[in-house]
Amino acid sequence: MGSLLALWVGCGDAEPDVGSTGFPDVPDSPGDDPTTPDDTPPGDSPEPPPPPSPSPPTDDPLPTFDVVAGDWRPAPLPAGRIDAAAIRPLGGGLEGPALWVDNNPEKVFGNGWTMQSGRADAQRGGRSDGLGPRFVAYAFHVNGSSATRYYHVLVTNPNPETATVTAVGAAYNNAQRPLNGPGTGQSYAVADAFRTGAFNVDVDAIVPTGTGRELARVRMPPSAMVDVRLVVETDRPVFVYGVVTSSGSTNDAINLSQAGSAAGEIVSPGPNAFGRQAGIFDQSRWAGTTRIELATGYVGLAFNTNDKFALDGVRLQDQSAIARTSLADSSVKSYGNYGMDYDVELDLFNPTTSALRVDLTFASNVVGDSDRPSFTWSGPVVVDGVNNVVFTTPRAPRQPVASVVVEPGQHRRIPVAAYVPGLITAGAHLLLEAQPQ
Fold first, then answer.
1. Among 255, 280, 305, which residue terminates a domain?
2. Which of 61, 224, 374, 396 has its CB surrounded by the most CB atoms within 10 Å?
3. By C-alpha distance, which of 394, 351, 347 is closest to 375?
4. Is the pLDDT of residue 430 over 70?
5. Whether residue 100 sits in one domain with residue 87
6. pLDDT tens digits for 334-344?
7. Distance (Å, rounded) from C-alpha 269 to C-alpha 333?
8. What is the pLDDT of residues 185-213, one digit of tens each?
């Protein structure tokens, strides 16, 4: 996971350890009628009231479209990527629960905490920020040292009362889930676990006041990548820590969580850099409906985009969350939305007199003559109830994911769901092509 380039790191070590881890009619209000007989001069007849204005039929209100017929570009579809001006905003918006992200440093060299929400640190900043009653914890790291290490996710209970904490999710490295093409690798496995519910982390714990509990642990052989995503519920606010150890000991991890930060490769934001994330965001999901008036041709919908840099001179829709808490050396926006998920619906309406076939394609905004990075998306994308193992590269930036027919005057709703994998390059669009059936 990175700001711009995806990593490809191989590892052939043995199986690592994973811890247990419209609106009703409203009657007119009573009131004085200005033309009542009491107000009419003697001998004059009251003027009849004007006829009521015709009302549009209430059973078929005029829709408001996010994409109108004029937004569609005429065929043929260009090779590579469509012009950025043809990529329209995706309907909906960000919503909760909160998201704790640990990805800066991404590459770690030593032991210590990598992200924590328990206190302000003299070197890296931050603040005390308890999480609950429900939140997502996401982490992605690479072991940049020559020694085997372990990555731990911990919670501590700062409350005077005992806390009950549950967590489910997935934690893998690329020895457990080797990365060798479509549908493989630790980041694909974590995203797919949330599609299927096949989790390898399941914790139900009582955490006494002033103590800590490990939620997940993953072994990190040299050069290994680790990817962790958890959904945590708690009846008391808790502090969350990501910690690297050499021993794999939970006690060592708890002790290190209260000491200094781990040495690693910090990437800070700047005018020409996204930076990486170590912070807490109030939202972890983009959800909603995009209402689309069909026409022949093609149009794109922004997917996992931001407005940090222009594309073809256009700043696309910013779908990033703003951090409520962030370490001082890290990004205050969730560029890339790693660890988040999308749960959206495309509401297609055919205003024409002919049936239209609509082809939907997942398309990366990163195109090129060579596959650098080696891939731009590698993750499951469920469209209209069917899972697609999507794998795009700069030289093959498009993958068809659905095809539907919309009859004249009819609506067709298509749900699209995806968890954003850690090992991708941000910036994509959903490409729609429509033609007579």
1. 280
2. 224
3. 394
4. yes
5. no
6. 999 999 999 99
7. 10
8. 999 999 999 999 999 999 999 999 999 99
Distance CA 158, CA 210 (A): 5
Distance CA 233, CA 298 (A): 43
Tokens matching residue 436? 């007579």
pLDDT band at residue 63 under the 50/70/90 scheme: low
Residue in 291, 290, 284, 288 with CA at minimum distance from that of residue 320:
284
Q: Which two tokens stand for residue 43?
A: 């001998």
Mean pLDDT of the chain: 89
Please tell me what DSSP assigns to residue 264.
B
Same domain, 140 and 266: yes
Q: In whole angstroms, what is the distance from residue 332 CA to residue 325 CA?
A: 8
Q: Is residue 49 part of a domain?
A: no
Residue 298 CA to residue 4 CA, distance in Å, equals 27
| pLDDT tens per residue across span 352-381 | 999 999 999 999 999 999 998 899 999 999
Domain presence at residue 16: no
Buried b or exposed e, range 57-91, using 16+ CB within 10 angstroms: eeeeeeeebbbeeebbbeeeeeeebbebebbbebb
Nearest to 78 by CA among 314, 393, 373, 363: 363
Are 223 and 371 in a shared domain?
Answer: no
Q: Residue type at 400?
A: P
Q: How many domains, in total, are found in the chain?
A: 2
What gap in Å lies between CA 129 and CA 117, rounded to an integer?
A: 5
Q: What is the pLDDT of residue 1?
A: 55
325 and 428 belong to one structural domain: yes
Tens of pLDDT, residues 286-295: 999 999 999 9
- Alpha-carbon separation of residue 176 from 376, 389, 433 (angstroms): 22, 19, 39
Domain edge (last residue) among 265, 280, 295:
280
State which residues form the domain around 209: 95-280
Q: Are residues 259 and 310 in the same domain?
A: no
Q: Are residues 167 and 200 in the same domain?
A: yes
Tell whether 420 and 351 lie within a shared domain. yes
Residue 149 covered by a domain: yes
pLDDT of residue 77: 96
Do 325 and 126 meet the contact criterion of CB atoms below 8 Å apart? yes
Q: How far apart are the C-alpha atoms of 122 and 260, rounded to whole Å?
A: 9
